[in-house]
Design a protein that fits this description.
single chain, 324 residues, Jelly Rolls, Phage tail protein beta-alpha-beta fold
């Protein structure tokens, strides 16, 4: 089952979380309000996550100078008032800076210490948001590690494919390590795919720097791609169809005059058992079509009507494309 990103966006969720938290801090919620809050928290995991972060920030309020909170909130000097009432006004004034007067400190602290390991199963696609506002879309059979530190935002991709939408931050580069190469950006949209013998990069928007283990590198802008081979050498930039390469995000496989050997390699990524193709003329046949990545059996059923081939079922349950 796919886990979709929160449809209203990270900033909207943070503002809603701040509003609910401010109400709860200002006094006990009425029973109907408690029910509404519980419903909102259950609507999406991101709701609970953002609300919990505000709870942590509340407990940290005593260690932040009162004057600092007032400056962050850009409010008039606050008269002496109970801590609860003061923080409530801070929350109401500061939704633009992480929704809390002490949000700058709290959210930054969380970002600087964020670590997580993520993975998807065969046929699973996931969308998620990182603490800095960057968004990731994970293809099936993907494994990665997220590590945000004081000087850098780092992703280690150990399997699969990810579409990155990186929040701009010139002071903290976003670095993706995959196979024998790295991709470095400050803010852009690009796709990274790790195969057994290469790492492929395609840029949809902005620019990235791809660097190989042998110090070779390439600068890519929108509509360009490159790859890093098993020896760590970066290929010269070449034109790519980013929409076709990332059609997996919509559950599609798009082939434009692709050799059958390439089609088989791609389709195998979406099957429990690998798909094979007979070498020689069959593997060199070319295909242009669009199929569902969620039903690759439909592709096998249709293929004999498109090309002069047949599908052979092997003893281990896998399939091979052979000459008709």
């Amino acid at each position: 089952m796919n886990q979709q990103a929160c449809p209203c966006g990270i900033e909207a969720v943070r503002e809603q979380a701040a509003q609910w938290f401010a109400r709860s801090c200002d006094g006990a919620l009425a029973q109907d309000q408690q029910a509404l809050l519980a419903t909102w928290l259950a609507q999406h995991p991101q709701h609970r996550y953002e609300y919990d972060q505000l709870t942590k920030l509340w407990s940290a309020a005593d260690v932040i100078p009162r004057g600092r909170l007032e400056v962050l909130c850009q409010a008039d000097p606050v008269r002496a008032m109970p801590r609860r009432r003061f923080l409530h006004q801070a929350l109401a004034a500061c939704v633009a800076v992480a929704a809390v007067g002490l949000g700058w400190f709290g959210w930054q602290h969380h970002q600087l210490n964020f670590q997580d390991q993520l993975h998807t199963a065969l046929g699973e696609r996931r969308q998620l948001s990182l603490p800095d506002g960057s968004e990731l879309e994970l293809n099936g059979r993907t494994e990665l590690k997220v590590d945000f530190s004081a000087g850098v935002r780092r992703i280690e991709l150990t399997a699969g494919e990810v579409m990155f939408n990186v929040a701009h931050d010139t002071d903290r580069p976003f670095v993706v390590s995959a196979g024998n190469g790295t991709v470095t950006v400050t803010g852009t949209r690009f796709d990274v795919r790790l195969d057994p013998t290469r790492t492929r990069v395609a840029v949809e928007q902005g620019s990235v720097k791809v660097q190989g283990r042998d110090a070779s590198h390439a600068l890519l802008t929108a509509g360009l791609g490159s790859q890093v081979d098993a020896q760590g050498k970066v290929a010269e930039p070449y034109a790519v169809d980013a929409a076709a390469l990332t059609a997996w995000r919509k559950g599609k496989l798009v082939f434009n005059d692709a050799p059958l050997s390439e089609v088989v390699e791609e389709v195998s990524r979406y099957r429990a058992q690998p798909l094979r193709v007979a070498p020689g003329k069959v593997a060199a046949l070319r295909l242009s079509s669009t199929f569902s990545s969620d039903d690759t059996d439909a592709l096998l059923r249709a293929l004999p009507s498109i090309l002069p081939v047949a599908i052979k079922t092997l003893a281990d349950g896998s399939s091979e494309i052979i000459a008709k």
